[in-house]
Amino acid sequence: MTGRIVAFDIGDKRVGVAVSDPFNMFALPAETYWRTKDADADAANLVRIAEEKGAGRIVCGLPLNFDGSESVQTEKTRRFAERLRQKTQIEIVFEDERFTTMEAERVLISGGVRRENRKRTIDSIAASYILEGYLNKINK
């Protein structure tokens, strides 16, 4: 695999985007994509973002229940990832995203970020935790 790794924290309203450094060692929050009502357009826009960031692989956070079982949100994420696959040749993989949003929120709260300002960054920070978990796994 060549290129950076881009991670998506896929939600119903927003998608957090994170990107690795050129050596795929570190995860950096990048941006938050606000979804439209058109899932195909959203998938195309996210593929474009990944391509612009030089992605050689896309990691999609997989929302599992606390016990590791799958939920309705897990299925929604799998369906959306399939839309991404139809629009790109970039490899797409999943990474467990349990606790990433809670951890991102904890960091923002401890940093004194006001509630109304957290929405702008929480998803990209959660995506960076998803990517960090994935990078730790592949770099062992």
From TrEMBL:
Function as written in the Swiss-Prot or TrEMBL entry: Could be a nuclease involved in processing of the 5'-end of pre-16S rRNA.
Q: Which family does it belong to?
A: Belongs to the YqgF HJR family.
Q: Tell me a Gene Ontology molecular-function term this record carries.
A: nuclease activity
Q: What class of enzyme is it?
A: hydrolase
Example GO CC term: the record gives: cytosol
UniProt name for this protein: Putative pre-16S rRNA nuclease
| Keywords carried by this UniProt record | Cytoplasm, Hydrolase, Nuclease, Ribosome biogenesis
Q: Which HAMAP family match?
A: Nuclease_YqgF
Q: Which InterPro entries match?
A: RNaseH-like_sf, YqgF, YqgF/RNaseH-like_dom, YqgF/RNaseH-like_dom_sf
A GO BP entry: rRNA 5'-end processing
